[in-house]
Structure formats: C-alpha cells, structure tokens
Amino acid sequence: MEIEPRGCVHCTRKYHYREHDFMVCVFWTPFLVRWNLTHGGQSFIDPHNVYLDEADPEWSGDVAGYDYAVLSGAKWFTRPTVLYEGGRILGCANMDGCEAAHNATDVAPDYAVRASFRTALRALAGFRGRVVVRTVAPPHYENGKWYNGGNCLRTRPVRSNETSLPETEAAFHAAQVEEFRTAASAASAARFVLMDVSEMMQMRADGHPGQYRHWPHEKVGFGIDCMHWCLPGPVDAWNELLLHLLLSG
Questions:
Q1: How far apart are CA 66 and CA 130, in angstroms?
Q2: Predicted confidence (pLDDT) per residue in 49-103, tens digit
Q3: Domain boundaries in the chain?
Q4: E strands of the chain, at which residues?
Q5: From CA 206, how far away is CA 220, in angstroms rounded?
Q6: What's the CA gap between 220 and 63, in Å, rounded?
Q7: pLDDT tens digits for 148-163?
C-alpha cells in the first residue's frame, strides 16, 4: 500500500493498493461544505466560517473519478462556527458574543448539519457511483465532558435499556436521516445507501482510548478521549457493514 501524502493529519490522503487496482481517498472536509478559519490561530479553538450552501471543493471537484462516495461527519458542528447562506451571515453556533460580533443570532447546530448534508447530497446528484451516508457516532463521556473531567471508565458493558443517544447526537442523526431520505427519493434507490451506526455504537463505549490516548508525559488539550474510535473491535464492524451494504445492493 502506498500513502500520499505522508506525515499529515488534517489533509486529504490517498491510499493506493496497486496489486488490486484499488484506491481509497479520505477527503479532509470536516463540514462537507466550504469553510475556513475566522482568523489565524489554533483550529481547535478558533471559530470557523462555514458556508452551508456551497459544497467543499476539496471533495466536490474530485469525487467524480470514484465508484463510491461515503458521506460522514457532524462532530465538527459542535465547535464554534459562523454560518453563511447566500453569501450572508445566517448566524452562529456554539459561540458567545455572536450578536455583538456579527449582528447575528444563535443557530442550532443540527440546522447546520442538516443544511450541509443537503448541500453535499445535491452536489452528488450527478454522481454515477453509489452514495453511502454514514450517520453520526456518539461519544461516551460520563461524569462530565471532555473539558471538565468526563471519562469512559466502564467496568461492564452497557445494557440497551440503560442508554440512549445524547440530545446533540440524536438531533444530528435525525437531520442526516431525513436529508438522506429526501435525496434517495429523488434518485434511483440503489444509488443511495444509509449506513446507520448511531444506535449500535451507543452500546460500545469500549472503542475509545480513554486516558490512554497519549503518553503520560505528554501535554495535550484534553487527556481523556471518549470520542474517537481508536481501538479495534467496535469500529471494525463499520467495514463489515459497509461491505455488506455494497455487496447486497
């Protein structure tokens, strides 16, 4: 396998399997639509300008050369964002001082998720391959959030009657599913596939690295990771589910 480019994190990467004449491209497009930082600094902290009605050219200009397109994402919509539609500021999400700084009001993050998936799916209307929409996967913080001591130190598996999607992820999930259904109804049913992992992953808090994401001596923004799916097991089911969906279509 060949990877290009190497050594980057927040960038588009291509994985070439030349023996099999096969390539996977992971497009770095955290919002699916066009975006940039409001000002210089750390991308994790600074607000982002997000243009909800413009597909991100990072992927939209190149996707036609592929046989399958998998749309996923939503997590970045929990970050501070300034939202645009029609070239004008619509409002802000997850940030203080929106009215004073931009003369705009707060917008629910799930509105932004809905609009971004709508824009992305419309951009794929002429795509000749198959489109897979993968729904949001929930975090598993207990006893707090990532920034105030939350953890995922479970001592036994969670039972189905003990958990449900967090409010934010439930709203994101509803927005994704509704936009998928709208797009699928306007196209050939076989071209659009829903890969709904939200409920199943709510049961798998064991898929996160927790306090073992970094070496003990490292200084990091947040030390306990109950959001990313770094451990083998739960996330491997996604590959199996995706393969099943593609082969059975």
A1: 9
A2: 999 999 999 999 999 999 999 999 899 999 999 999 999 999 999 988 888 878 8
A3: 129-249
A4: 2-4, 13-17, 22-26, 33-37, 48-55, 68-71, 81-85, 88-93, 130-134, 192-195
A5: 22
A6: 35
A7: 889 988 878 888 888 8
